[in-house]
Design a protein that fits this description.
Order of helices and strands: EHHHHEHEHEHEHEEEHHEHHEEEH
Distance between the termini: 38 Å
Shape: globular
Number of domains: 2
Number of strands: 12
Radius of gyration: 21 Å
Bound molecules: pyridoxal-5'-phosphate
Number of helices: 13
Strand order of the largest sheet: 2-8-7-6-5-3-4
Largest sheet: 7 strands, mixed
CATH class of the largest domain: Alpha Beta
Length: about 400
Amino acid sequence: MLTAKDGREARDLWNLDPGFRHLNHGSFGAVPTAVLEHQQEQRHAMERNPVRWFSTLVPRIEDLRSDLAERLGVPSDHLVLVANASAGASVMFRALAQSGPLHVVVTDHGYGAVSMGAERVARETGGTVATLQIPLGATDDEVLQVFTEHLSSHQTDLVVVDQVTSPTARRLPVAEIARCARSLGARVLVDGAHAPGALADPVVREADVWIGNLHKFWCAPRGSAVLVRNSPDLDLYPLVDSWGGRERYPERFNHQGTVDITSWFSASFAHDHLEGELGWDAIRSHGAAMMRHAEQRIGGALADVGVSDPIADVGHAFDPMRLFRLPGGRIWDHAGVDALRVPFMEATGCIGAFTEFHGEGFLRVSAAPYTTEEDIDEMATSAIPILAEIIGRRTL
Ligand SMILES: Cc1ncc(COP(=O)(O)O)c(C=O)c1O
């Protein structure tokens, strides 16, 4: 268990419902209480004098960009803030939409919503989409080979690839893929939605554009993400046309219409808060240790309900997440696994994510600083047998 500097348990830094075991940080994150309070102070300042707040925003966003760029180890004129990773991906698609027909490459591990955006831009420009098939357990070298073979024999304008994959909780060798794709003339968008906070050096500088959510493992309030542009010739605009329209990148991103961006202004505080209370190195080690415990306990419980090979070999695991095979051996689709989330939570008091990959269903578990061995033990001993029952009863 992680302990805060004043001796409190790490989980006491959050206000999570104690009636549940929260083992799905990966989907929506969770915001520490002090960070919410900080955001609330920002909101109060905004509401005490909205005209002052909005009229003085630009220099404060400039300062924030510099601060976050320093934390992430990138030049401040490379970095802008956006609402979320999805918005960052759309910014990239929009920038390339004029230069069609676009031949786009995605992978079968891609985040569905972002892949749909890639498909749309390909369709609207008269281009094509190729979905590369990467075996679940492929090593980094094997993944790179899939890309190299495809890219060297198919004209490609844009590669969209995930640093950490959502359905399969694995890492992909994105720096090497980006180097290869760019040497062959393609643009590269690396979707690093899960990376900030979870990886010590998350930004992929080899990509034309890298995006990362601050509202997942970084633990900032929702609606905060960063986009890093490494290629100055790529002209990016915010999704909302606003007063920065005639300015250059990155300044034009300081204007995105009238919107509550107190989440952005809480991102540095969130980072400092968790460094001060727990330490980011300790948080990352804790996540890895919790998932080793989960392999033993949840893997064991799944074996007990008849799952052979319960811990999915994902080739290159992402430290704070694990992927487990579902009991029942049935064929799943996205809607089917999604429909397990709430009934499982209500029946067991344990919260996990359910994903699907080529018809196989998985329980995806993730660790955060507040995760304890007891959470995992409870998931293993009481929730997994109930999960087997729920799935056994379902006709989905
Ligand atoms: C790889 C990946 N990309 C994009 C997203 C979308 O993030 P958001 O909903 O914050 O835009 C997610 C969310 O989990 C993700 O896992």
